[in-house]
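If you are new to this repository, start here. Below is one unmodified record pulled from the training split, so you can see the exact layout before writing a loader.
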Amino acid sequence: MIKKLLLIISLSLFINSTYVSTVYSHDHSPRKKLISKLKTEILELGGDPIKKGNPFKADQKYIEELQEQLSQIIEEIKKKEGIEKVKKEIIEEIKKFDVKPVNEKESFIDLDKEIIALRKQLDELKLKQKIEEAKAALIKELEELGVKVESKSEVDSDEEIAKLKKLLEDTKSEKAKAEEKRIAEEKQKEEARIKEVKNELLKELEKLGVKPKLDTSDVDDNAEIIALKKQIDEVKAERKKAADKKKAEEKKIAQQKEADRQKAIEDVKKEILFLSETPIPEYEFKTEDKYIAALREQLEEIRKIKEEEELKQNAAIPEWYLNMPEDTLDVMYVRGAHTSADIDQSEVVAIERARIKLARNLQSDINTRFETVAKEAGVDGDLTLKQEFETVSKVVAKNVSLGGYKIYKTKMAAVADNKFRTYIVLEVSISSTYKNYIESIEANEVIKKNLPKLKDTEAFKELEQYVADFAA
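And here is the target side for that same chain:
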């Protein structure tokens, strides 16, 4: 029985131990891997992983110790890298002075001591450089003053700089004394020159008939000369001002005279040109008065000829041209006439003159009507819209005057001097013109935005009805 009992207990313990081992192994496998990984990283960074020691220590505790060790190693490496960077920078600066860094001459066990030695070496080199620069500046300044200096390297730098400074001060002192002497000599020369100039100025004043204002007994020479010059300048300025004023008045009179002459010439020329004749050229006359007289004589002759021609032309003017038919609700009439030696030119220009009147009258009529439409629509203050209205009316009127008219009546008659005069009256439909205008504004991008407002007015509706009635 005891043997059986022991066997059962042994089997229970074995089964329980196997189960616990299996569970424990399954639960802690990632921790074992993490411990192995941390140890590997510590070894790769040159460290020696700490021992677990107590076999019953928890894996999590051991992981935290390893992580702490790894962090310390990484921090130490970063610190060392920073020190090495500073060391490298100091060495680079030292090498700029063409000097070997101290760490190339002797070895250092302690990195901090090596850095301190390198910094000391760099500071000494910088100080030496500043001393050399100061010395070079003093030598340069002395050489600029004409003193040749030989620098002695065996002399202590501070002592050498002190000697150079003293030499510089002595040189400057000597130069200052020489400059004072030169200024004194220049002043003597200047005083002599002042007296000479003073006498010249006095003589110039006497030539101008002016007595000097100065009392030379209590005024120094330089101030006196300045005053004399000022007096001379004032006298000259007054006389120049008077001369300029006289010259300006004479010039103004001459300009006015020339302007009057030119105006007289232009007035006569305009009258001659208005009568379709060419003024005689000015170069044929030597004097201005003769040219004006000749122009006036030419004008009188032209007037007499034109009066005779007008009498003959009036006899040929047809009754329908003098008494044109009155405009109706839908028809507008315009007339034109022209005289030319060329029979075809006479007709072409007569039609052109009538067409110009037609375009002007149509545009004026359209603009007046659409001012009323815009006012009723409340858009009469829109300058852009107003400009578009006028542009469209101008284009429509021009197009109508180019081909939208009919010749009501025309006549050609021979007049004086082998010339021909054409009389013509044109008629145009007003409703068709407005129809074209309405179509144009409906297609205009700027006006199209306000078209509903415009079409809603009584004035626009009346216009559409007017076009519709006459179109029917």
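Two things worth knowing about this chain: Residues 327-471 form one domain. The radius of gyration is 59 Å.
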